[in-house]
Amino acid sequence: MSETSEPTVQPITLSWWVSGDTNAFFGLGFNTLVNVLTLSGLCLAVVNIPGSDVFGVILPALGVQLLIGNVYYTYLARRLARREGRTDVCAMPYGPSVPHMFIVVFVIMLPVYLQTKNPLTAWAAGLAWSFIIGVIVLLGAFVGPFIRRYTPQAAMLGTLAGVSIAFISMRPAAQMWEALWIALPVMVIILIGFFTDLRLPGNIPVGLAALLVGTAIGWIGGYMSAPDVVTAAKDVALSLPTADLGRLGDGLADVAPLLATAIPLGIYNFTEGMTNIESAAVAGDEYNMRAILAADGTGAIVGSVLGCPFPPAVYIGHPGWKAAGGRTTYSLASGVVIALMCFLGLFGLLGAILPTPAIVPILLYIGLLIGAQAFQETPRRHAVAVVIAIIPNIASWAAGLMDNALSAAGTSAAQVGDEALTNAGLVYHGTVLLGGGAILAGLVLGSITAFVIDKNFFAAAAYSAIGAVVGFFGLIHAPQVGWNVGGQIALGYLFAAVVLGVFGLVVRRRGVGGDGVRTDQPVAADLVGAEPGEGVPTPRHAAEPAAAPIDLSDGPGRPATA
């Protein structure tokens, strides 16, 4: 009597460091470096938080966040590598969320500061907001796998591409063009190093070479100032984080106004995490979603208790760092180095030494890579779904740009008036609505479109109904959350659901239509009707999920999960 069993995975020797980790370390490290320098400047210049608090409290707390996430993600990567017997597993990148750092400053802390004239009160409001974000992300860790299973891959990667183009790429690209004589040589080195098979002389890491060249050009060309370096060096000092529940409690005392943005942006955070996990799965590394999102939520909560109002996130860009040669340890090394810089108060000094145009091209590289992946890794017929998922994020970026410009002029859209804005060629109100809850809106619109293309009209109708519900409460296409804040939006989605349902009945009677949910799809079952090899990753052998030490498994029912 014979027995069948699953093939056993041969034990492997897993290195702690490979040559590609050096490339990815410098790339992710510079990415995180730019973000920390940016959020430091926002705290100092916009909210007027004292420098002693920024460099002595906020950044050390951020350093703890980085250690928590990067240590845990390295553990998950090495666990996955051993379970699957692979040496090419790449850890998920992790750091402060870029969109959130602007939102918490301009939407949460700045209004409180302008009202109270007290930067510490504004800081406390930011801490409370970040704490709420963390709680929502923890809850999302348990519903995320279900959402992922029934969401088309084109919608998930498309909305991620929208974030990368609008919020990750556009600002760095603009900063590059302000000093293109520094930035473009850096960008060219990055393109050669990461998008061709050529090696740099002496096999020097691409990120390091790019930074050295850009810094040299900046200093030789007179872009930088030596006295600024001397001044910044005086502020270097060791600061270790300590918990301050009183400061967090002050912010939570008036929590109601924070919910209007915390709820949709908490959903945004775990939705973005889902799409990044999907992106990693397409690149060959399928992580346990609950484990990844639990680390994000925990990092935000711990950081807010210690004094950091900037929630962390699993970063866009896993495929880029994997393509650059990153494996299980590059993210950990980056997190440790940046954390040490936070503890030692080195960021003021670094900002005085490194030209911004020499650093920001790495962000544009990430945007290019993720935008391309959305089209390369989904069926060709779903290209329209990818594009429509991108559009809400562009609208969100454009709306923010208009609001910031009006604010800088000492006015607002309400003061200027719809007629004047329309006469200037701006569809202001529609742009704001289209961009509200952009990540979630992109998922809904992309899913509807993908299912329509595949003639799976009942699934498309279901997503339209979901759009009606979340639109009614303002989670998408609205500037705030509340009861019936998006009535006309909900009505539009509801009418669309009716139309789609009617078409579903028609095609059912004719005996044609989509295939429904694909049970043989290892990621996002939801590439309905995809042809073999068209946008569908090659299935791997089944193995246990890359789970956390506690039980965070997706549970039964997810096919071919690695």
Secondary structure: elements and pairs:
Blueprint: H1 19-45, H2 51-84, E1 94-96, H3 98-116, H4 119-149, H5 153-178, H6 180-195, H7 206-220, H8 226-233, H9 245-252, H10 256-282, H11 289-306, E2 312-314, H12 318-323, H13 330-344, H14 347-353, H15 356-359, H16 361-376, H17 383-408, H18 413-416, H19 418-423, H20 428-435, H21 438-453, H22 457-472, H23 487-510
Antiparallel strand pairs: 1-2
What does the model show?
The protein is mainly α. It contains 23 helices and two strands. The chain has helices at residues 19-45, 51-84, 98-116, 119-149, 153-178, 180-195, 206-220, 226-233, 245-252, 256-282, 289-306, 318-323, 330-344, 347-353, 356-359, 361-376, 383-408, 413-416, 418-423, 428-435, 438-453, 457-472, 487-510, and strands at 94-96, 312-314. Strands 1-2 form a two-stranded antiparallel sheet. Helix 8 packs antiparallel against helix 14 (347-353). The radius of gyration is 24 Å and the shape is globular.
Structural class comes to mainly alpha
How does the major sheet shape up?
2 strands, antiparallel
| Straight-line N-to-C gap | 30 Å
Residue stretches low in confidence (pLDDT < 50, at least 5 long) are: 515-562
Q: Given the structure, what is the number of helices?
A: 23
What's the alpha carbon Rg, rounded to whole Å? Answer: 24 Å
The total number of structural domains is 2
- Record field, number of beta strands: 2
Strand content: under 5%
Globally, the shape reads globular
Query: What is the average of the pLDDT values?
Result: 83
Helix content: 55-70%
- Within the largest sheet, what's the order of strands? 1-2
Helix/strand order: HHEHHHHHHHHHEHHHHHHHHHHHH
